[in-house]
Amino acid sequence: MTAATRAEVCAVAVADAFRGDGEKLASSFGTVPAIGARLAKLSFEPDLLLTDGICMLLADVQPVSGEPRAEPIVEGWLPFRSVFDLLWSGRRHVVMVASQIDRYGNHNFACIGPHERPRAQLLGMRGAPGNTIHHTTSYWIPNHSPKVFVEQVDVCSGVGYDRAAALGPRASRFHEIRRVISNLGIFDFATDDRRMRLRSVHPGVRVEEVVAATGFELAVEGDVPESRVPSAGELRLIREVLDPAGLRERELAG
Amino acid sequence: MDKRTTVAEAISELRDGMTIGIGGWGSRRKPMALVREILRRPVKDLTVVSYGGPDVGLLCAAGKVKKLVYGFVSLDSIPLEPHFRAARQAGGFEAAELDEGMLQWGLYAAACRLPFLPTRAGLGSDVLRINPELKRVRSPYADGEELVAMPAIELDVAIVHMNRADARGNAQFLGPDPYFDDLYCMAAKRRFVSCERIVDTADFSKHGSFHTLKLNRTMVDGVIEVPGGAHFTECPPDYGRDEAFQRAYAASARDAEAWRAFRAHFLELESEEAYQEAVRAWREEAR
Question: Which of A238, B14, B185, B237 is the most exposed place for a label (fewest CB within 10 A)?
Fold first, then answer.
């Protein structure tokens, strides 16, 4: 089997972000996160819940490309009305995309420029404020650049660690940004002051490249390890079962 | 009571400055025939409340919106609604952008006739900065937690589209998701339901189980039979989204000329029947 591609390294990084979640809804936006969530369920987190992307909870794992494996097995019904109940109850881990993110994990996909009159209207707040204050969130950023990793977000849709801390321990007790996964590396917030830290660089990426592509001062501690590469079994699942058409390769910058 | 009415009669109740709630979600089961009728009328300065799709895009492009209360506006298969984007970037209206769950909570508060409902959603984000009228409330219990007091979103008029209804105003959804249509109706003073087909009350059970009877007649003032009334949004199982037409709609946001042509072709027509005829002719031509 050929060596893992960058997209495949990112997919297992997403999968690893779901470790320990158990019986939670794994929500994902984007192709690589969708593969990661499914890979986690097929391997080390079999109790995760997945949706069909509309409002059915599926007991089996469907591929993101190619032919469906069989008629999906519906294990539950999750219309939007129940989605908010579920996410406010905390039994969810979402992987969202970001147009901007800062050193404390404040997130923006609402608009670029001032909110009163944006230069570019994007998705809007969507569920990001409620998601980030109620349950675990991770971010997927396939185009790591100083335009995305910014000193300050134009509008804060997802709550970061400094803003959560300002709310006090009670209001912020469900807040957790577990990982940021980009096309260059994996990041967490495991510093004393909860700043974004370079956790690992993907194979073939140098630390200096990541630092140069980041618009704020990144926490870099000692020798930064390389991101985990998928095992042969994981590669087979990604290539043959989950994404036979290779949609994952189209999502990354470059 | 027979609540059957027409698209024109229902929308004739709208007045300048009213707050209108629109059911459905994104480009899914939207009361588009009723929205198109709003476009035919001079009514203006509306506050529109919506989990937005092309309903919002059309009303923005037509200059009907003074204030928009929303969590997002999307065409689903086209993630960003181009007419809404253009209007936002032109500073065309007041944007009361909320977390999606806060919008539900505001409608639910209005439905329950409460002044507000507490929620954690919005805390720490810029939702509170861009909506400075939103206030916080402290729990009166031992926890003392500070929460957002999401105010009731009271509606003058709600419009929704369902699969089936009877003449008395009971209505049935047959697709996968009921969305928030019952909350829109319960939050409003006047409530209009368009539907694919009006059926005898006794026949609801032939179409779907009793679980699908989401609206009861206390929630509804007028019922309008408009087959295809959600076009070009999806209305399963009756029909899916008209993706080709939606692409043509999205492309009409390209420039003033494209939008003028789209309007002339599909919107500046005397009735919903004329619209549907124009869509049929367009489809024939495209073939």
Answer: B237
Q: Give residue for tokens 């470790």.
A: A19
Minimum-distance CB partner of B25 among A80, A110, A174: A80
Q: A118 and B88: CB-CB below 8 Å?
A: yes
Is B136 in the A-facing interface, judged by CB distances under 8 Å? no
For residue B125, being part of any structural domain is answered with no
CB nearest A123 (choices: B51, B72, B91):
B72
B58 and B68 in contact (C-beta within 8 Å)?
no
- What CATH code would you report for A6-250? 3.40.1080.10
Q: pLDDT at residue A232 above 70?
A: yes
Residue B113 has pLDDT above 70, yes or no: yes
Q: What is the pTM of this model?
A: 0.97
Query: At CB < 8 Å, which residues of chain A contact B?
Result: 54-56, 79-81, 84, 87-88, 110-111, 115-130, 132-134, 155-159, 163-164, 166-168, 170-172, 174-175
Contact A130 B100 (CB under 8 A): yes
DSSP-derived pairing of the beta strands B19-22 and A197-201: unpaired
Most A CBs within 10 Å, among B27, B28, B100, to test the A interface: B100
Joined together, the tokens standing for residue B204 give 């609801």
Return the structure tokens found at A150: 């910014």
**Structural domain of B227:** 7-114+152-241
**One-letter identity of residue B192:** F
State the complex-level ipTM.
0.95
pLDDT band at A237 (very low <50, low <70, confident <90, very high): very high
Q: What's the rounded Cα separation, in Å, for the pair B205 and A174?
A: 44
What would the pLDDT profile of A94-132 be if each residue is shown by its tens digit?
999 999 999 999 999 999 999 999 999 999 999 999 999
Alpha-carbon distance of A13 to B156, in angstroms, equals 49
Q: Which residues of B fall within a CB distance of 8 Å from A172?
A: 124
Question: Is residue B55 situated within a structural domain?
Answer: yes
